């Protein structure tokens, strides 16, 4: 028995083979393995693909100067790029594509001559394709964890007849109207979606040898195009009874339009139910993770991207001057080659260079991330929530191994704060420090923030990208000077919050109190950090909240 996800993936690739340019492409979420290999191999003869790399440069995409040929011929010789001719493109590890590459591919898809099969290999819901690129790919399928035993061999199909029939397939006006209404009820606000769903229905009809989409074709289009884009789950239409229809006047026959109208509305309900059946139960949670991923792509909570001239991922060279950085010799030659016939060459020289030809190398590297926990170990919080805070730190530290991130722990209690765990990825060291974390005493919140600021500044100077997570009940009662007094303690905490915001450290404030504390929400606003009240969360929920908010 084949898995439903496998059947949808096979159907999506079949539709894409019939109308590649019209549908734009397919976003296939599947890890590398025999299941994905069997799917792609089954369509390789009918859909030849040109493989891209997620770090491909502009010169490979759009072409550029053929340096060797230009220098040999003494004239400009251009080398063609991948996007110069219509092509079916395959992008593995598409979730790692940079925003620049996603924008360039989206522009190429807008021209209507290219098709893209994007292989999303993300490990979790927080990883995925760029929204601008995803919006232009009509079909979306998640293979998930389909076992190899629930797949089937894909028989060879001649798609030439379906491609020839496609221009003759017509769609009734009510079909487009039904798709638009279903998209609106699913919260799909992109105008591309219903248009692409209509094209998918036409491709399904052509594949089935029909001149007009059937109800099954429309349902398949809704499942592959609209359901994956849903942002809301439609409520059942049973809140208010519909008013009765007015009876026809005496002497007039009953209109037959009522029955026809009910029949005309049937496809919309069928399409909506088909789409609803594919909506994940955790739709809102997945959307929140998607927003967190987009925030990380913008630099919030993730390691900062820094440009330099020594190491990292290569970037396009820029004009510069000698001494300002390492010279990109090939790029400099390409800049000078087109002008050689117009320039007077020095005696004995084959090439003439000018200052404006100089190109400098550039690189981009992502800083190592550091998550700094600032934990309230005072008497008001120690006995109720300290165990959960310890468990959250351990869970996040275990995740940091795979991401090569570091975690630090600052505890504040009594009259001051202490760095119990310097930046580390050692789980054994972290557990020892957490086990020795004492509780009790006053709440020197300002001292905890001051210690976090000092540590974050020190680690930023070492090239790391710090993010702060404050776990407290918000009842500050010890000043920076170590003296009791709630008004001054609150003022000191606010001053330290302004300092953290001035340095631009991303942060999260978790209110662990039994009731939400307004002063703590105000402190989060002062810090420019997110505020989250979790009065009854365990260590797992605390860790998940920090990961989502800070992109940890």
Overview of this structure, please?
- The protein has 552 residues and is an alpha/beta fold.
- It contains 20 helices and 16 strands.
- It has helices at 4-18, 20-23, 34-43, 58-62, 67-73, 99-110, 131-134, 160-165, 173-185, 192-207, 215-226, 257-277, 283-297, 329-336, 379-403, 427-435, 445-461, 486-502, 518-527, 539-550, and strands at 25-29, 50-51, 64-65, 78-79, 88-91, 115-120, 139-142, 305-308, 313-319, 359-366, 369-376, 406-413, 416-424, 465-472, 507-511, 530-533.
- Strand 12 (406-413) and strand 13 (416-424) form a beta hairpin.
- The longest helix has 25 residues, at 379-403.
- The radius of gyration is 30 Å and the shape is flat.
- Residues 236-243, 252-265 and 281-303 have low confidence and may be disordered.
Give the SSE map.
Layout: H1 4-18, H2 20-23, E1 25-29, H3 34-43, E2 50-51, H4 58-62, E3 64-65, H5 67-73, E4 78-79, E5 88-91, H6 99-110, E6 115-120, H7 131-134, E7 139-142, H8 160-165, H9 173-185, H10 192-207, H11 215-226, H12 257-277, H13 283-297, E8 305-308, E9 313-319, H14 329-336, E10 359-366, E11 369-376, H15 379-403, E12 406-413, E13 416-424, H16 427-435, H17 445-461, E14 465-472, H18 486-502, E15 507-511, H19 518-527, E16 530-533, H20 539-550
Parallel strand pairs: 1-6, 1-7, 2-5, 5-6, 11-12, 11-14, 14-15, 15-16
Antiparallel strand pairs: 3-4, 8-10, 9-10, 12-13
Jot down its keywords.
552 residues; 16% strand; 6-stranded mixed sheet; Rossmann fold; alpha/beta; 5-stranded parallel sheet
């Amino acid at each position: 028995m084949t898995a439903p996800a496998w059947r949808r993936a096979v159907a999506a690739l079949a539709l894409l083979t019939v109308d590649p340019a019209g549908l734009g492409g397919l976003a296939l979420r599947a890890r590398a393995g025999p299941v994905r290999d069997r799917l792609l191999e089954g369509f390789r003869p009918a859909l030849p693909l040109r493989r891209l790399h997620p770090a491909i440069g502009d010169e490979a995409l759009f072409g550029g100067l053929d340096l060797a040929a230009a220098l040999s011929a003494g004239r400009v010789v251009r080398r063609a790029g991948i996007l110069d001719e219509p092509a079916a493109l395959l992008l593995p590890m598409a979730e790692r594509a940079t925003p620049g590459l996603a924008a360039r591919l989206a522009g190429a898809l807008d021209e209507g001559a290219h098709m893209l099969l994007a292989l999303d290999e993300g490990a979790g819901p927080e990883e995925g394709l760029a929204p601008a690129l995803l919006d232009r790919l009509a079909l979306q399928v998640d293979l998930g964890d389909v076992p190899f035993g629930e797949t089937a061999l894909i028989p060879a199909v001649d798609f030439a007849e379906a491609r020839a029939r496609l221009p003759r397939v017509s769609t009734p006006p009510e079909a487009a109207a039904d798709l638009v209404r279903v998209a609106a009820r699913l919260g799909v606000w992109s105008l591309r979606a219903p248009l692409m769903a209509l094209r998918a229905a036409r491709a399904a009809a052509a594949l089935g040898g029909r001149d007009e989409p059937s109800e099954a074709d429309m349902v398949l289009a809704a499942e592959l195009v609209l359901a994956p884009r849903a942002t809301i789950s439609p409520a059942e239409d049973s809140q208010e009874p519909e008013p009765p229809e007015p009876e026809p006047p005496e002497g007039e026959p009953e209109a037959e339009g009522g029955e026809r109208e009910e029949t005309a509305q049937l496809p919309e309900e069928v399409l909506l139910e088909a789409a609803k059946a594919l909506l994940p139960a955790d739709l809102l949670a997945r959307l929140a993770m998607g927003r967190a991923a987009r925030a990380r792509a913008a630099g919030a909570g993730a390691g900062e991207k820094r440009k330099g001239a020594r190491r990292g991922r290569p970037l396009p060279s820029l004009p510069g001057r000698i001494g300002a950085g390492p010279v990109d010799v090939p790029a400099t030659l390409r800049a000078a080659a087109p002008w050689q016939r117009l320039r007077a060459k020095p005696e004995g020289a084959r090439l003439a260079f000018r200052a404006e030809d100089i190109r400098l190398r550039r690189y981009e590297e992502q800083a190592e991330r550091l998550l700094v926990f600032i934990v309230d170990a005072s008497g008001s919080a120690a006995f109720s929530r300290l165990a959960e805070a310890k468990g959250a730190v351990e869970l996040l530290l275990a995740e940091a191994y795979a991401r090569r991130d570091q975690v630090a722990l600052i505890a504040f209690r009594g009259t001051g704060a202490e760095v119990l765990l310097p930046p580390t990825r050692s789980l054994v060291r972290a557990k020892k420090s957490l086990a020795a974390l004492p509780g009790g005493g006053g709440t020197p919140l300002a001292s905890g923030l001051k210690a976090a600021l000092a540590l974050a500044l020190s680690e930023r100077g070492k090239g790391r990208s710090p993010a702060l997570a404050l776990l407290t009940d918000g009842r500050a009662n010890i000043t920076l000077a170590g003296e009791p007094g709630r008004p001054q303690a609150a003022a000191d905490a606010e001053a330290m919050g302004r300092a953290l915001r001035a340095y631009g450290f991303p942060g999260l404030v978790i209110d662990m109190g039994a009731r939400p504390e307004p002063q703590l929400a105000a402190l989060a606003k002062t810090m420019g950090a997110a505020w989250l009240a979790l009065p009854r969360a365990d260590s797992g929920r605390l860790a998940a909240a920090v990961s989502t908010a800070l992109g940890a």
